[in-house]
């Protein structure tokens, strides 16, 4: 592996060497940065990731920690803003933290990864699904514990084609890396199957009035709408569509699968379809982990809690595997090994993407619950 030699990278190597040799300056705790939106409109996703990381750390620390050290989460807020990704990444470097769980949103993740890779810092995102996070980058220290949009998009399109069989489909997105990317993937797969795509249009994230696009949807006669983006905009589309008499059914990616959408959409959210990671809480092997979440008043069944738990666990297993706090060695170990996690036995390809990941389709309900589509 090749890394650019920088003073920060040298400091990382020195710190790792002192820790491995039992040097007097070894830290009392091994810090893991948790990078994501802890302010702004999608703070719920940052909270999901933090719950997963905290639960994993608590269980690992209770079992003795890693190499005799306790793990410590350091929360860092990027607000889901691409411009804040590098700010957080540089803070991680300056604070001499070697491992990151995050970032959460694809735009912020894409903006931060080059810094982490150049500085030899291991980053594992449990939620950023855009292919652009890893495609064509030749990164060595960047990983995911979630699938990509070019896995999720085709899965959604296959479901639409085989289960819904709509006459006319409108595809909307929020003009951002994540939303537009997955919407494009869905549109392209539907077009290959000969589905009539009557609209492909971006909306402005953060707007409060989507009546103009609702009018276009009604005029298009679309009976099914796919939206690529996050829950605040999807909630408004659902509510305002219902108010204007739009009859089309809506579907979105994991970014819309947030209980807070119910407060925005109200009863109009009933029947929304969403692709999410499989519900790993149903696996009997995860019973103790599920109990650990619930004992702390946390919900393990959200979109990112168990992928975040798995990201933290993977980092811990990598450190144990190499026997020292050496992020470059840990990255090599992760590329070469399989890790048993709550989301299954996972392994990574050369660019840090999972070799296998399954998305499933759920029906969302007005009480905030979801059920697997049957």
Write the layout of secondary structure elements.
Blueprint: H1 7-20, E1 29-36, H2 43-62, E2 70-77, H3 85-94, E3 99-102, H4 106-118, E4 122-125, E5 142-144, H5 149-164, E6 168-173, H6 177-192, E7 196-202, H7 211-220, E8 224-228, H8 231-243, E9 249-252, H9 261-265, E10 273-277, H10 287-295, H11 305-322, H12 327-336, E11 339-341, E12 344-346, E13 359-364, E14 370-372
Parallel strand pairs: 1-2, 1-3, 3-4, 4-5, 6-7, 6-8, 8-9, 9-10
Antiparallel strand pairs: 10-13, 11-12, 13-14
Describe the structure.
It holds the Pfam family Peripla_BP_6. By secondary structure, the protein is α/β, with parallel strands linked by helices. 41% of the residues lie in helices and 18% in strands. The protein has helices at 7-20, 43-62, 85-94, 106-118, 149-164, 177-192, 211-220, 231-243, 261-265, 287-295, 305-322, 327-336, and strands spanning 29-36, 70-77, 99-102, 122-125, 142-144, 168-173, 196-202, 224-228, 249-252, 273-277, 339-341, 344-346, 359-364, 370-372. The strands form three sheets. Strands 7-6-8-9-10-13-14 form a seven-stranded mixed beta sheet, with helices on one face. Helix 2 (43-62) crosses helix 11 (305-322), helix 3 (85-94) runs parallel beside helix 4 and helix 11 (305-322) crosses helix 12 (327-336). The protein is globular and about 65 Å long. The chain starts with 6 loop residues before the first helix and ends with a strand.
């Amino acid at each position: 592996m090749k890394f650019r030699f920088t003073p920060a990278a040298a400091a990382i190597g020195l710190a790792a060497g002192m820790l491995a040799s039992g040097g007097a300056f070894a830290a009392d705790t091994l810090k893991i940065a948790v990078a994501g939106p802890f302010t702004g409109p999608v703070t719920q996703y940052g909270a999901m990731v933090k719950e997963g990381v905290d639960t994993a750390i608590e269980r690992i620390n209770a079992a003795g920690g890693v190499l005799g050290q306790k793990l410590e989460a350091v929360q860092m807020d990027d607000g889901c803003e691409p411009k804040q990704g590098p700010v957080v990444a540089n803070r991680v470097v300056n604070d001499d933290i070697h491992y990151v769980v995050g970032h959460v949103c694809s735009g912020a993740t894409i903006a931060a990864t080059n810094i982490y890779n150049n500085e030899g810092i291991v980053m594992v995102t449990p939620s950023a699904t855009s292919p652009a996070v890893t495609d064509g980058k030749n990164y060595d220290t960047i990983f995911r514990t979630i699938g990509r949009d070019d896995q999720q998009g085709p899965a959604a399109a296959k479901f639409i084609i085989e289960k819904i069989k709509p006459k006319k489909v409108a595809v909307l997105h929020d003009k951002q890396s994540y939303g537009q990317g997955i919407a494009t993937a869905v549109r392209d797969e539907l077009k290959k199957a000969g589905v009539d795509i009557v609209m492909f249009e971006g909306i402005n994230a953060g707007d409060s009035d989507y009546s103009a696009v609702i009018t276009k949807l009604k005029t298009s006669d679309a009976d099914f709408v796919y939206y690529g983006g996050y829950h605040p905009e999807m909630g408004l589309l659902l509510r305002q569509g219902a108010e204007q008499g739009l009859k089309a059914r809506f579907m979105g990616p994991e970014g819309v699968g947030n209980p807070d959408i119910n407060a925005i959409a109200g009863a109009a959210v009933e029947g929304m379809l969403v692709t999410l990671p499989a519900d790993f809480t149903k696996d009997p092997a995860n019973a103790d982990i599920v109990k650990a979440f619930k004992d702390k008043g946390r919900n393990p069944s959200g979109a990112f809690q168990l992928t975040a738990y798995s990201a933290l666990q993977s980092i811990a297993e990598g450190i144990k595997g190499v026997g020292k706090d050496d992020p470059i060695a840990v990255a090599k170990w992760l590329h070469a090994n399989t890790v048993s996690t709550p989301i299954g036995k996972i392994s990574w390809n050369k660019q840090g993407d999972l070799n296998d990941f399954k998305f499933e389709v759920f029906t969302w309900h007005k009480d905030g619950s979801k059920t697997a589509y049957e």
